[in-house]
Design goal:
Length: 225
């Protein structure tokens, strides 16, 4: 019986990897994928769409996990492309689109099965941490503390069936400080405000990290088994 279950698990995994791998391959190899190496590459590519540039930026950010774009490049590109104010807005919309994509992937794309079989110790800890009471506050911690990867947290939140309102509320609120800091940093390149912008970025991510450590939330995650 155990051997049959193992074979069935391997077959399911093979099919899943084949389907997801094919999607990743064709999207990544698409001639419309610019394969950027810097924020300026993104700026030139998106700006080439003229008045549709904001929609293109939001669309690219939404499917970023499939394109294998580094998040940092897209975060910095918003301020360079659209300025410090519109850049924050479009970064937030694109980030929420990406969060929706990963959440739905976790909830309906086999996220629970993947987490159960391949999530490992930290996947299990984060799953146990998010379920139960105060899930909004817990997800807000995971969004603001810079040591937790954005996409896996989104997939895990979807896989545990976290409420939509709580998920999107905590995600939007958790993204806001970083979005402001990244746009300020992008607009400060080549100016005397650069070091101030770096300080703002450190505060935006450093304060939640210190607060998270001192509040005891870090211990709660480590204790979740």
């Amino acid at each position: 019986m155990k051997q049959k279950r193992f074979i069935y698990l391997c077959l399911r995994l093979a099919v899943y990897v084949a389907v997801v791998g094919a999607i990743f391959y064709f999207v990544y190899q698409s001639p419309y994928n610019p394969h950027p190496q810097s924020a300026d590459d993104i700026r030139r590519w998106v700006a080439g769409f003229g008045s549709l540039a904001p929609l293109m930026y939001i669309g690219v950010y939404t499917i970023r996990p499939l394109l294998l774009f580094p998040t940092l490049i897209l975060n910095l590109s918003a301020g360079v492309l659209f300025g410090p104010y519109w850049g924050v807005l479009f970064l937030l919309i694109g980030g929420m689109g990406c969060a929706s994509f990963c959440y739905l992937w976790g909830r309906f794309g086999g996220g629970r099965w993947l987490l159960q079989n391949f999530g490992g110790q930290w996947g299990e800890r984060l799953r146990n941490y998010l379920v139960g009471s105060k899930s909004f506050t817990k997800l807000l911690w995971l969004r603001t503390v810079p040591i937790f990867p954005y996409d896996p947290v989104s997939v895990i939140a979807g896989s545990v069936g976290l409420g939509v309102k709580k998920y999107f509320g905590a995600t939007l609120l958790g993204m806001l400080p970083g979005a402001i800091a990244y746009n300020f940093l992008a607009g400060s390149f080549g100016t005397n405000k650069f070091y101030v912008a770096v300080l703002v970025l450190l505060v935006a991510f450093g304060v939640p990290l210190v607060w998270w450590q001192r509040s005891g939330e870090s211990r709660k995650i480590r204790e979740r088994q």
